Amino acid sequence: MKDRFNASKAGEFYKRVFTITWPIALQSLISVGVNMLDTIMVGSLGDDPLSATSLANSFIGVYQIFCMGLGMGASVLVSRYWGMKSAAITGGDSDGEKKAERALKQTVALMLRITLGLALLFAIATMFFPQPIMRMYNNEPEILRYGAIYFKYSIVTYFFMGASLVCTIVLRSVGQVKLPLFVSIGAFSINLAMNYCLIFGKFGFPKLEIAGAALATLISRVFEAAMICGYLLIVDKKIAFRVKHIFMKTKSLIGEYFRISIPVLISDGILAIGNNTVAMVIGHLGGNFVAANAITSVTQQLSSVVISGVAQAGAIVTGQTLGEGDKDKAMSQGYRFFGLGLVLGIIAAVFILILSNPVIASYKEASEETVKIAKQLMIAISIIVVFQGTNSIMTKGVLRGGGDTKLLMITDNIFLWILAIPLGLLGGFVLKVPPFWIYIFIKSDQIVKTLYSFLRLRSGKWIKKISVGKES
User: Fold this and answer.
1) pLDDT value at residue 276
2) pLDDT at position 288
3) How far is Cα 17 from Cα 289, in angstroms, rounded to an integer?
4) Residues of the chain whose pLDDT is less than 50?
5) The pLDDT value given to residue 417
6) φ, ψ dihedrals at 204, nearest 5°
7) Rounded to whole angstroms, how far apart are CA atoms 396 and 390?
8) Which end of the chain is more exposed for a tag (fewer CB within 10 A), N or C?
9) Please, are residues 289 and 380 in contact by the beta-carbon 8 Å criterion?
10) Which pLDDT score, from 0 to 100, does residue 427 have?
11) Distance, C-alpha 336 to centroid of its chain
């Protein structure tokens, strides 16, 4: 563990993390920018369209979190196999290289099959049950009506969004971080232009209002999927995954895939349901609270883009390091990631406090009560982000990259369902505490998870052995 304090090695470490992080963070920033533009443009139509868009996207966000789980679960394996392949090439082990390469492709094939299957399920639910889905969040007739309109134009979005998201994560796992960034810039530009044209009816386009926001998002997702998936399936030579490999035999790796990747999917899936439960709690606290939360959530996402990038870098770096067989180095890197998370969390908190008033002021159509609630939420978010930033880098990054996915699946959801959600319900509906405390209660699991992640890191038990499976 001595190299933990070695300045030269620390410099190499931070340079490597920065190289992976900045394109991911910038891409996340662009994605948040798209969400912010949607929110501001739809917000100009009034509180009801803004609330409906926010709540409809809460359900779409469930699928997105499932895809993140699938992508990050596959990333644990892809990073490890990529490290194994590199070590085999360096050591002149051609047989080891072939096994690692086969396992890598099998992982991608399994990931894509599950992603598209889930897309079909969500598309069917959105097509046939838009009103019941919206009623899970809110019962106000106008919000239900606007939400159903938004869903109508979002049905096929799942397929394009899911495919591009998981393929992006896989490309990042082998060092392909710049292409997704450039594609996101293009998607952002398309979304911005189509939002303006379709929401407000500019340049001869029909004025579709909330439907225009959903259609603009779909158009940008189609572009994104065409570019990302097209590159992976046709151009990329690192993974060399082609369309035919989607149908390759994967029986030899299914056991390992389910052991490592599926707990990530289940964990993120249950967390998505938990976060949706939180959204339901917020939705039933009234339209003003929903609108205020929609305003502040974009700022929270904006402040966390670097943290999200570092978390993904943590999973990639840790996986590759362990794939190369260096456990001591992975441990020392883990401590550095924890310290980095704490620093970034504090910076994010300051960022939120500085931006809170200008952001809230930009929503000129928001009611006085909505503005009052939003200001309280901003302060609460600035406190929670310190803890959330630190534990995200550990649980979604380092510990996950080490293969500790099964225990993370259990602990993440215990903290959410046994602590955070009951406290949120208690504060919002029984004690009726101010919005500041409701948010603190709802996010209390982030505080506990920070302590847990440090103790788990120290134990060293998070480093798990991963195999390449057996030949079919």
Assistant:
1) 67
2) 79
3) 38
4) 1-5, 472
5) 87
6) 85, 0
7) 10
8) N
9) no
10) 86
11) 22
Contacts of 341 (CB under 8 A, 6+ apart): 307, 310, 389, 390, 391, 392, 393, 394
Contact criterion met (CB below 8 Å) for 48 and 146 = yes
For residue 420, count other CB atoms closer than 10 A to its CB: 24
Domain boundaries, the chain: 2-459
456 vs 294: CA distance, rounded Å? 34
Q: How far apart are CA 50 and CA 25, in angstroms?
A: 26
User: In which residue are the tokens 């505490």 written?
Assistant: 433
Query: Could you tell me if 233 and 243 are in contact, meaning their C-beta atoms sit under 8 angstroms apart?
Result: yes
pLDDT in tens, 399-457: 999 989 888 888 888 898 899 889 988 988 888 888 889 889 988 999 999 999 999 99
* pLDDT at residue number 110: 94
Cβ-based neighbours of 121, under 8 Å, separated by 6 or more: none
Q: How far apart are CA 149 and CA 53, in angstroms?
A: 10
Distance between CA atoms of residues 289 and 295, nearest Å: 10
Average pLDDT, the chain: 86
Nearest to 291 by CA among 358, 377, 351: 377
Indicate the residue type of 339.
Answer: G
